[in-house]
Structures are given as structure tokens and as C-alpha cells.
């Protein structure tokens, strides 16, 4: 992975049955960004956790960000992250 | 990630439009094995590549293994890998 192809990780709560939406998001991101992403990882966890990281940076946290990103927000939060990296 | 919760990675060819089946496999594995897995990563690639790794071990390669694993084979190849690790 080069800096140009970041790792996205989606950490979700298995007890809350969030695999379906997490799997959907992984596929949306890979469908949109393709090889601009190094990988998208799904990480099973517990305790109501739902977090999206780009490399080490937390870009979405369920409680902080008010639930889950939808089809409009999901690519936007990634674009925002990429642009902020480009601008240093 | 402990040794008890391995990383699975699925490397697929974007040009071949294998995201759909790769995303399905990721979700099947997470649905079956849950937190016994540390993570399942989807890795976009090119050139007709389709590979599944458990940690560093290649457990499925499209040309070697005759195409793609189906719903019966997919969990089996993982179980086989886990058992071989347990038996040293």
C-alpha cells in the first residue's frame, strides 16, 4: 500500500447485527473508489461500536456522528479525508 | 488481533467485476465465524487475480483451485486451515 492507496476499516458490533450495513458500505466504497483504496477491512466487534477509519484517522463514529452514514454521506466523508490529506 | 483471531484477506480483480462475489464471501465468512476472525479485508487488484489468505497463508487461488469457492467450500477451506494450525 502506498500513501495514495489508504486502508479503510469498518469496525462494527456483531451483537447489533450491523454486518449487513457494514458489508454494504465496504462494497459501496470499493465500487466508488476502486483501486484508489488499498483495502477495505471489516472488523467484528461488540458493545454498539461502529467506527470507520482511514488509515489511523477516525472519520466516522456512530455516537459522535449521529448514527450511520448513508449513500450520500459515505463517499463524502472519504473525499473530505482525502482532500484534507492532499492539502497537508 | 490474537493468533486466535486471524486476518482473512480477499484479493480480487476489479476489471473482472469480482467485487460482488468477493463482498459476498467476506460477509459469509463474517456471518459464519464472527469474532473468531480478527478482520476480513477486501483488496482491489487487477489481472484476473483472485486469492484468499488467512494471515500469510494462501488458502485459495483461482487458477490453482479451479475458479471460485461456493457456499459449501468457502467455510470448509477456512476450517481446514484452522484445524491445521491447531494441530501444529
UniProtKB/TrEMBL annotation, chains A, B:
Keyword Oxidoreductase: no
Pfam short name (any one): Rdx
Keyword Transcription regulation assigned: no
Matching InterPro entries: Selenoprotein_Rdx-typ, Thioredoxin-like_sf
Alphabetically ordered keywords of this record: Redox-active center
PANTHER family named in the record: SELENOPROTEIN DOMAIN PROTEIN (AFU_ORTHOLOGUE AFUA_1G05220)
NCBIfam families found in the cross-reference section: CXXU_selWTH
Name of protein: SelT/selW/selH selenoprotein
Organism phylogeny: Bacteria, Pseudomonadati, Pseudomonadota, Alphaproteobacteria, Acetobacterales
Amino acid at each position: 500500500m502506498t500513501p495514495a492507496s489508504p486502508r479503510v476499516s469498518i469496525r462494527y458490533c456483531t451483537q447489533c447485527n450491523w454486518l449487513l450495513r457494514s458489508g454494504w458500505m465496504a462494497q459501496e466504497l470499493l465500487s466508488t473508489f476502486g483501486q484508489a483504496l488499498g483495502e477495505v477491512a471489516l472488523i467484528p466487534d461488540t458493545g454498539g461500536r461502529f467506527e470507520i477509519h482511514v488509515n489511523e484517522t477516525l472519520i466516522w463514529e456512530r455516537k459522535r456522528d449521529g448514527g450511520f452514514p448513508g449513500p450520500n454521506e459515505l463517499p463524502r466523508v472519504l473525499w473530505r479525508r482525502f482532500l484534507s490529506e492532499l492539502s497537508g
